[in-house]
């Protein structure tokens, strides 16, 4: 691990200012992903800004009937919250499908959204990776790609976004709240938060330099049946080959976001109009333009089969 300096801040504004005061600084909250990356020297921040004591650990109702989740709410507290379990069951199920109990105790809402890909070529510093070293190439494209992306990828990167929580938040139309070093706040819809790789796969989110996530806001609940299915190589502590997060209504309509297949939670609203026609029609539209490799072509059929199971469970 490279040498770094450390400071603890006490307000969101102080954190954002500290991030621009010291070049190469990173925010530190739960640290469940960042510290692993630092040990491997994939992340080498010159300075860590500990934001663990700046508040932002509350789950509160919004004036419009939604729910505001502080950036530092732990995954455990989020999944156990009564309102989340009652009105946003998809989110609770997705969170509980990820990691271990110990990790969920430390992981935070904002940190979970910002976790980086588990592509093996990103983690192996002896391999070429445009995400880790921009312009170096992508060994994954001609390499072992079973876990990697089939849609939304580029000639520079075929890594997937690994999280479960973000899949649910995409289906729920969540919005990310932030503050920048000048104290200016803004909101970023989940649909725009994670970026596709294009020619700059190292730029993974819409966050700007020094910008700090303060909360994630859920709109008022939409009812329906909430289902999260995660298909993986073993029953626990593994990332998804394919995951399906769905909110299904009695009239046959619904929302569906997919994990494990793209650089961000994959949702195509236009495809949702085909849900009443069944999984095959929906999946064909959802995966239009997919570019699988020989090793992960099976994900095309796996998405359809998993969605079929979800629709059956939802009574469709």
UniProtKB/TrEMBL annotation:
Keyword Nucleotide-binding: no
Residue ranges occupied by any FAD-binding PCMH-type domain in the UniProt entry: 1-223
Keyword tags: FAD, Flavoprotein
Tree of life domain: Bacteria
PROSITE patterns according to UniProt: FAD_PCMH
Gene3D superfamilies with a match to the protein in the record: 3.30.465.10, CO dehydrogenase flavoprotein, C-terminal domain, Uridine Diphospho-n-acetylenolpyruvylglucosamine Reductase, domain 2
Pfam families: FAD_binding_5
Molecular function (Gene Ontology), one example: FAD binding
Name of the featured protein: Molybdopterin dehydrogenase
Organism: Spirosoma pollinicola
């Amino acid at each position: 691990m490279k040498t770094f300096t450390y400071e603890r801040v006490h307000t969101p504004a102080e954190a954002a200012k500290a991030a621009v005061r010291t070049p190469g600084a990173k925010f530190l909250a739960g640290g469940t992903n960042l510290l692993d990356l630092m040990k491997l020297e994939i992340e080498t921040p010159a300075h860590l800004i500990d934001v663990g004591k700046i508040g932002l650990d509350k789950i509160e109702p919004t004036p419009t009937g939604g729910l505001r989740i502080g950036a530092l709410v732990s995954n455990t507290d989020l999944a156990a919250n009564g309102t989340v379990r009652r009105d946003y069951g998809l989110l609770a199920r997705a969170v509980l499908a990820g990691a271990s109990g110990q990790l969920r105790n430390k992981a935070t809402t904002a940190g979970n959204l910002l976790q980086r890909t588990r592509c093996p070529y990103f983690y192996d510093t002896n391999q070429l990776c445009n995400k880790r070293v921009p312009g170096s190439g992508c060994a994954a494209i001609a390499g072992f790609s079973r876990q990697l992306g089939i849609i939304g990828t580029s000639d520079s990167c075929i890594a997937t976004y690994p999280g479960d929580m973000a899949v649910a938040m995409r289906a729920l139309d969540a919005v990310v709240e932030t503050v920048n070093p000048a104290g200016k706040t803004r909101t970023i819809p989940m649909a725009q938060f994670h970026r596709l790789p294009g020619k700059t796969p190292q730029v993974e989110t819409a966050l700007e330099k020094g910008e700090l996530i303060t909360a994630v806001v859920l709109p008022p609940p939409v009812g329906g049946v909430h289902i999260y299915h995660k298909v993986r190589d073993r029953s626990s502590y593994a990332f998804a080959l394919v995951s399906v997060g769905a909110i299904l209504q009695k009239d046959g309509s619904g929302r569906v976001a997919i994990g494990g297949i793209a650089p961000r939670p994959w949702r195509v609203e236009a495809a949702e109009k085909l849900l009443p026609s069944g999984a095959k029609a929906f999946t064909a539209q959802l995966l239009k333009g997919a570019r699988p490799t020989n090793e992960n072509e099976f994900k095309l059929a796996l998405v359809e089969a998993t969605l079929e199971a979800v629709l059956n469970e939802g009574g469709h």
